[in-house]
Amino acid sequence: MIRKLLLALMLPAALALAGCTSSLTARVQRFNAMPPPDGQSFVVEAAEAEDRGGLEFRQYADHVRRHLTALGYREAASRRDASLIVTLGYGVDRGRQQIDEFPNPWGYRRFGPAYYSRFGYFGRRRAPFYWGWHDPFWDPFGYDVTVRTIYTSFLDLDIRRAADNQSLFEGFAEARSGTDELPVLVPNLIEAMFTGFPGNNGERVRITVTPERQQR
Prior knowledge:
Distance between the termini: 46 Å
Number of strands: 12
CATH class of the largest domain: Alpha Beta
Strand content: 35-45%
């Protein structure tokens, strides 16, 4: 009976927490010498050789393309025809453990030890992590202890003038989250980068991307 009551009380909080995880707050820094958009042409290239020509990179490049065309730039047929070269880089780290401990108002104690996959680490896109619970027991002075992994992702966006390789825009975005999935992270970081684009030269801002803004 006690377990059912506790689960009923905890469910709304868990659902609220799940809703919060769909947003992403990024720290964005931009250096800007961009001319006003006047139909300049561009191509989007990968910063890392391993991403060039890949289907995953094309997905992210398409996000950048849509933002630039909405601002008044146009996509060039080839690098030779482009007046602007846009370089896109991105990645995520292996993550770090964070332990949260807080008083349990119901005196119900849970322990959440971390378990790593026996398969180990599979490159920058995968860091398998599991967490489980010991059998709960009654403790009038209990604490809830959770162990989670926090990942730091980043996005680099550079724009140069093709004619003389002059730098016109340098942008860097960084965010912490509970996932290392690049298909989730990179579109959000791109959205943050283009919020208020190109921004003020040298500015450093915090931008929160919500599901509503992702669907624009």
